[in-house]
């Protein structure tokens, strides 16, 4: 029995907003890209710090407001040749991160890329999409909309609170 037999694929639109609990980032705009194998995360200032026994990968992302965030570190990473949107192979660092889509925590690989000139700081590729989602390019922000609808409604502070039990 395969994953397809157990769970039907959920529909995802051409774009959405994702949360990265490992990075403390929420509602980050993402583009769904069935042409990309590996997902990508926009980052600045990627550098390695060497010690006698190991290397630590350091990087900065942008927060949900477009500001450069604090530095993050990863002890586990790899380097891989990845083709960019122009078909040119680039050597990139690849890390595993958790993201949240439709309330589900998904762990997947992200290449660290400079996406500053691109509209979306996150690109979700086929490895993440496979056996989970079917892309409907006419839709957008389906996970984000569901998240907004599931948030508890805040009470209006001007509402009269005399509706308590009567004696």
Account of the protein in words:
By secondary structure, the chain is mainly beta. 10% of the residues lie in helices and 48% in strands. The chain has three helices and twelve strands, in the order αβββββββββββαβα. It has helices at residues 3-6, 126-129, 142-150; strands spanning 10-13, 15-20, 25-32, 39-42, 44-50, 55-62, 68-74, 78-83, 89-101, 104-113, 122-124, 133-136. The strands form three sheets. A seven-stranded mixed β-sheet has the order 2-3-11-4-10-9-8. Strands 5-6-7 form a three-stranded antiparallel β-sheet, with no helix packed on it. The chain starts with a helix and ends in a 17-residue tail after the last helix.
Looking at this protein, list some descriptive labels.
mainly beta; 10% helix; globular; single chain; Cathepsin D, subunit A, domain 1; seven-stranded mixed β-sheet; three-stranded antiparallel β-sheet; 167 residues
Query: How many runs of DSSP E, i.e. beta strands?
Result: 12
CATH superfamily: Acid Proteases
Main sheet: strand order: 2-3-11-4-10-9-8
Please provide the ordered H/E string of secondary-structure elements.
HEEEEEEEEEEEHEH
| Low-confidence runs of at least 5 consecutive residues | 157-167
Please name the CATH topology. Answer: Cathepsin D, subunit A, domain 1
Number of helices: 3
**Percent of residues in β-strands:** over 45%
Structural class label = mainly beta
State the helical fraction: 10-25%
Going by CATH, the architecture would be Beta Barrel
Give the radius of gyration: 20 Å
What's the mean pLDDT score?
Answer: 84
CATH top-level class: Mainly Beta
């Amino acid at each position: 029995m395969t994953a397809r037999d157990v769970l039907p694929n959920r529909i995802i639109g051409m774009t959405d907003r994702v949360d990265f609990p490992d990075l403390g980032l929420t509602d980050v705009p993402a583009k769904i890209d069935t042409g990309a194998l590996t997902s990508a995360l926009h980052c600045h200032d990627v550098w390695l710090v060497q010690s006698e026994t190991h290397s630590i990968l350091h990087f900065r992302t942008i927060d949900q407001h477009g500001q450069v965030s604090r530095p993050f570190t990863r002890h586990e990473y790899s380097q891989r040749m990845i083709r960019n949107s122009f078909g040119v192979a680039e050597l990139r660092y690849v890390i595993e991160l958790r993201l949240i889509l439709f309330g589900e925590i998904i762990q997947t690989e992200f290449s660290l890329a400079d996406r500053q000139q691109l509209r979306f700081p996150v690109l979700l590729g086929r490895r993440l999409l496979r056996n989970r989602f079917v892309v409907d390019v006419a839709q957008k922000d389906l996970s984000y909309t569901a998240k907004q609808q599931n948030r508890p409604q805040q009470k209006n502070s001007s509402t009269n609170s005399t509706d308590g039990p009567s004696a």
